[in-house]
Each structure stands twice: as structure tokens, then as C-alpha cells.
Specification:
Layout (H helix, E strand, L loop, with lengths): L1 H9 L1 H6 L23 H15 L3 H14 L4 H14 L2 H10 L7 H13 L3 H12 L6 H13 L4 H9 L8 H15 L2 H14 L4 H13 L3 H14 L10 H6 L7 H18 L3 H14 L4 H13 L3 H11 L6 H14 L3 H14 L4 H13 L3 H12 L6 H17 L3 H14 L4 H14 L3 H14 L4 H13 L3 H14 L4 H13 L3 H16 L9 H10 L1
Helix pairs in contact: 3-4, 4-5, 5-6, 5-17, 6-7, 7-8, 8-9, 9-10, 9-16, 10-11, 11-12, 12-13, 13-14, 16-17, 17-18, 18-19, 19-20, 20-21, 21-22, 22-23, 23-24, 24-25, 25-26, 26-27, 26-28, 27-28, 28-29, 28-30, 29-30, 30-31, 31-32
Length: 565
């Protein structure tokens, strides 16, 4: 997609410098692109400490160490850029701005120029902000996000909405961005007081992006304050039906009536553009740049609760649960977000080990919102984690009754309920759900693997199980769990020579799995290679000690018994 490619090129300085994501689906960056300080021992020590912290994902501590190193080696531009990058990631925008101001002209990046532009605008220096924004925009002429920032700066400098809207409409944009363009056109019309044109733009934006929260909220708010509360109510109800997962964070008409009509400062306008920029980059999997842009938006508009909520969601995705909890905790009393934040806090607390608190809060939300599937999904996942498989099945039963489920949703729920049945040793019911899921999604290698392995482990339907696992391996040959299952099936068939081939591959593909190491040990033992068997059984125990979850109760004792024998 050409548009997104240009976004990632524009943010190249951030992407190159950022270390690998923790908890993300990709690895955007590499090792810190920093040259070692040539100053004294203290500076070198701080640099080395920062590097270790950086590579381990501790961005805040790394930034502090790098700052100490930078004090001893102020001419190290690579180090200065890295500290700027980390400061943005940590939400320390003041430090990032200070560093951007000290970069020589030839060292300025797109991101540092954006920082300078928003800082100048924040301090009322509109002409300086326009200059820096024009320089930043040279890296990607015609990019909507830069055009929006320039439009808001031009409006603040006296340009009329009509001229700016005409300029935005002349941009050759993909259809996917039509809703974003219309939304910001509406904001410009509202700033000028033309509610008729604003409503027209918002209705077009909502039609183009019916699931966009900010567009729906602003349209509903304008309806309310233009005396069209009935239209706002219809809009919000339709949005809730179409987007049940976010319905809990949407206000009702009564809440909107208590809010003031739309009015925005330049800081809020630029924050809206930065947040949109962050969401678009996030959608392409670039989590660190998204976090940096949302941090910039919150620095400009710290009272924007939805920006903070989505920052919490992003931090969860990145695996920084304490930071996510901190963001949600700020919002827990917000009347508009209310129970949506309570659900996020319940899930985060549960993941952080506060399982009783998380379960109690989620259960209370289920009683308060018995019709909301998103709450029952949370309860089902928590029940499974608590090994309360009967309760997990109950929750999945309820979710599967929904006639509006898509095929993909039904497959997901059948798979999940089948897994709960399997853990509860109700193998016939587990097989029934997994077979139903496979009928709906016959090329799903993960379901094939689960069903095939369960049958092999129980000694049932062995030929069918073997065929399922061979097919799954053809579909996903690089999946360690599937290689392990097929190897285990060969072991159960008595073909340990072939079993070893697949199990050795499985250990290479998934070296952190205690269960796979145990299986390889069993296959070696069956071949009479007891030294190798002991090696992999011991490795299985070591992996358990490192935190790998045992596949079933008593697994450790079983492995220890084999070692003793």
C-alpha cells in the first residue's frame, strides 16, 4: 500500500533507532544506533549501562543513562538522536523538544522538525511553527497528516476554512483516508462557526468510516447542540450495535448534552492530527512510532481521555502492563469512558497477577452488563486461566448463542470452548467443537493440530489424527507445536527414527517449550539413547524453572520420575 509505505519512510529515523518491540507482532528496529562516547570512564560506563538497558527494553532507565553519557560527550549526534527517540517513547516530550532544539540543521529529522513545529505552535510562535512544518513535510509531499498540521497552523495564522478545505480536497488520497480528511474538514468548519458545512462533512466522514469513534462522537455532539438529539441517539445506538467491543467507552446523549459545544485550541487541533497519525502507523504494526505520536498528542492535549485510553491499549499490546494500568487508572472515574476503563483495568490486573481482583471486577461488570459479549469474553479467558473450565464453557455457551456471529467469530469460539472441554477431560465434547470449527474453517492448521494431538495423546482415532497432523504440518511447516505433534504421533506409532526428525526440528523451532523437550527425551529413550534422553528431560525441567507453563498438572513430577529411572 503506497500510502502506508510513505508513512514508514517518513518515520524512518524512529524506526531505525527503535529496539525490538516487547510484546509486539514485529521487530521494527535494531540495536541502538549509537557510537560509544569517547569521553571519560564515567561517560563510557553510563553509555554501556544505557545500551544494556536499551536492548533489554527498559526505555526509561536507558534514557537516563544515555543522558548522563551525553553530558560527557555532547557532540555525539547518534547518541543525541537516540535519547530524543527514547524520550518520545517514554512520553518525556519536554526532554525530546530540548534535544531537538540542540540538533544542528543537517542533523534534523522529520520527527525532530515536527517536534519543533508543535513546540513553536504551543508557545504561540505560529510563523516559526509553519516554517518547521513545511520543512518536515518535504520528506513526504502531499501526506495527509502533514497537510492537516499545516492547515491548522494556517488557520491559526488567519487563513479561512474554505481555502484550507479546498486545499485538502485537492489532495490525491486513497479511499481509505476519505473519512479522515472529511473529519478534519468538519473541524475547520466548526472552528469558523459554519455548522451546516461541518455537519455535511461529518456525515460524509461517518459514512466513509462508520466505526471511527472520534467522527461518531463529534457528529453526535454537533447533532445534540444543534437541537437534533433524536438523530444523535439513533447514531449512537447504531454505532453500539455495529461496534459492541467499544460500546462501553461511548457516552450517551444525556452525557453529551452536559458537554460544551465544540471549540478547540491550536494545541487540540494539532493533537487530533498527531493522534490520527499514530493510529494509522499503529494499524501497520509500527507500535513504537505510534506510541511516540500519541504521547505527542497527549502532551499537546493532556485532557483528551480517548487518546489516553488508546495509549493504555497500545501499552498493553507492547507488554508494558504497569504503564497501561497507570493510564487506565487516570481515567477510571471518567463518566464517558466508565465501565470500558473498568474492564481494561480488570484484565490488566488479572494479567499482572492480581487475579482475584481482576476476576471480581470482571464478574461485577458481567452482572451490570449481561448483554455485552466483550465482558463475557473476558470472563471466559479469565476462567480458563484460573483452570475453572466449567465456567469457561458456560461463558462460551452464552457467546455462541449470538445469531449475529460471523463465521470467523464462531470458529474462534468453538475452538476456545473445545480447548476448555479438553482441559476438563471431556474429550468427546472437545472433539465435537473442534470438528465443527474445522467444518467452518477446513484449512485451519491450529485446530487440526489441537484435535490431532488430543486424539494421539488419548490413543483415539489414531489414523485420522495422524492424517490431520500431516496436513497441519504441510500448511505450517515452521510451527514448532505442529512439528512436535507430528513427531509425537510418529512416536506413538512406534516409528521413533522419524519421530526424532520432527521432534528435533520442533525443539529448534520452539526452544523454550518444556513439553517439546520432554517429548524429544522420550523419543531418544525409546531408541535407547539414554544420555540424550536425560539431557532433554533436564532441559524440560530447566525451562519450567524459567517460567514455561507445564502442559498439565503433574508434568514436572512425571519428568523428574523419568530422570530418576
Amino acid at each position: 500500500m503506497i500510502f502506508i509505505a510513505s508513512l514508514l519512510v517518513v518515520l524512518g529515523a524512529v524506526l531505525v533507532a527503535a529496539p525490538a518491540q516487547r510484546g509486539g507482532a514485529e521487530e521494527l528496529g535494531a540495536s541502538p544506533a549509537v557510537t560509544s562516547p569517547a569521553a571519560d570512564t564515567q561517560g563510557l560506563s553510563a553509555y554501556l549501562q544505557g545500551t544494556v538497558l536499551d536492548l533489554s527494553g527498559n526505555e526509561q532507565a536507558a534514557a537516563k543513562s544515555y543522558l548522563s553519557a551525553l553530558a560527557e560527550d555532547p557532540d555525539n549526534m547518534n547518541l543525541r538522536q537516540r535519547v530524543l527517540d527514547l524520550s518520545l517513547t517514554n512520553g518525556d516530550i519536554a526532554t525530546a523538544v530540548r534535544l531537538a532544539k540542540t540538533l544542528p540543521e543537517v542533523e534534523q529529522s522529520t520527527v525532530s522538525r515536527m517536534l519543533l513545529a508543535v513546540d513553536h505552535a504551543h508557545n504561540g510562535k505560529i510563523k516559526d511553527a509553519r516554517r518547521d512544518m513545511r520543512l518536515a513535510a518535504r520528506s513526504a509531499p502531499g501526506l495527509l497528516q502533514f497537510e492537516l498540521l499545516q492547515a491548522y497552523l494556517d488557520f491559526a495564522d488567519g487563513a479561512k476554512a474554505e481555502k484550507l478545505v479546498h486545499r485538502l480536497q485537492a489532495l490525491p488520497l486513497p479511499t481509505a483516508l476519505e473519512g479522515r480528511r472529511r473529519y478534519h474538514e468538519a473541524r475547520l468548519w466548526l472552528k469558523e462557526g459554519d455548522y451546516a458545512k461541518a455537519l455535511e462533512a461529518l456525515e460524509l466522514a461517518q459514512a466513509a468510516e462508520p466505526s471511527a469513534i472520534f467522527t461518531t462522537l463529534l457528529l453526535a455532539k454537533v447533532y445534540v447542540h444543534q437541537g437534533m438529539g433524536d438523530k444523535a441517539e439513533v447514531l449512537l445506538k447504531a454505532f453500539d450495535v455495529a461496534n459492541p467491543s467499544v460500546g462501553m467507552i461511548m457516552p450517551d446523549v444525556a452525557t453529551l448534552e452536559k458537554q460544551k459545544p465544540f471549540a478547540s485550541t491550536l494545541d487540540q487541533d494539532m493533537a487530533a492530527s498527531m493522534f490520527d497519525f499514530g493510529l494509522m502507523v499503529w494499524a501497520e504494526g509500527a507500535l513504537t512510532p505510534a506510541r511516540q505520536l500519541i504521547n505527542m498528542a497527549l502532551w499537546l492535549d493532556p485532557e483528551q481521555t480517548y487518546d489516553r485510553y488508546y495509549l493504555g491499549v497500545l501499552l498493553e499490546m507492547m507488554g508494558d502492563l504497569p504503564a497501561a494500568k497507570a493510564q487506565y487508572s487516570v481515567l477510571k472515574d471518567d463518566p464517558a469512558l466508565g465501565d470500558g476503563v473498568a474492564l481494561r483495568l480488570a484484565e490488566v490486573n488479572f494479567k499482572l497477577g492480581e487475579k482475584a481482583e481482576g476476576w471480581r471486577a470482571a464478574s461485577a461488570l458481567a452482572r451490570a452488563h449481561p448483554q455485552l459479549a466483550v465482558v463475557h469474553r473476558s470472563l471466559a479467558l479469565m476462567a480458563f486461566e484460573r483452570e475453572d473450565y466449567a465456567r469457561a464453557v458456560e461463558e462460551y455457551d452464552m457467546l455462541l448463542k449470538d445469531p449475529a456471529l460471523t463465521k470467523a467469530e464462531r470458529v474462534e469460539l468453538l475452538f476456545a470452548r473445545g480447548a476448555a472441554y479438553e482441559r476438563a477431560h471431556m474429550y468427546a465434547k472437545a472433539a465435537g467443537d473442534l470438528q465443527q470449527a474445522l467444518e467452518l474453517d477446513p484449512a485451519n492448521a491450529q485446530i487440526m493440530n489441537y484435535l490431532g494431538y488430543m486424539w494421539v495423546d488419548q490413543g483415539e482415532n489414531l489414523e485420522e489424527a495422524f492424517n490431520l497432523l500431516k496436513k497441519a504440518h504441510l500448511l505450517a511447516p515452521d510451527d514448532g507445536a505442529i512439528s512436535d505433534s507430528l513427531g509425537w504421533a510418529y512416536h506413538r506409532r512406534g516409528d521413533d527414527a522419524t519421530a526424532l526428525e520432527y521432534l528435533e526440528t520442533a525443539v529448534e523451532q520452539d526452544p523454550e517449550s518444556a513439553e517439546i523437550s520432554d517429548h524429544l527425551g522420550d523419543a531418544y529413550a525409546a531408541r535407547g539413547n539414554h544420555e540424550a534422553a536425560r539431557k532433554y528431560w533436564q532441559l524440560a525441567l530447566d525451562l519450567l524453572d524459567k517460567g514455561d507453563v507445564p502442559p498439565h498438572e503433574g508434568f514436572r513430577a512425571e519428568v523428574e520420575a523419568k530422570l530418576k529411572r
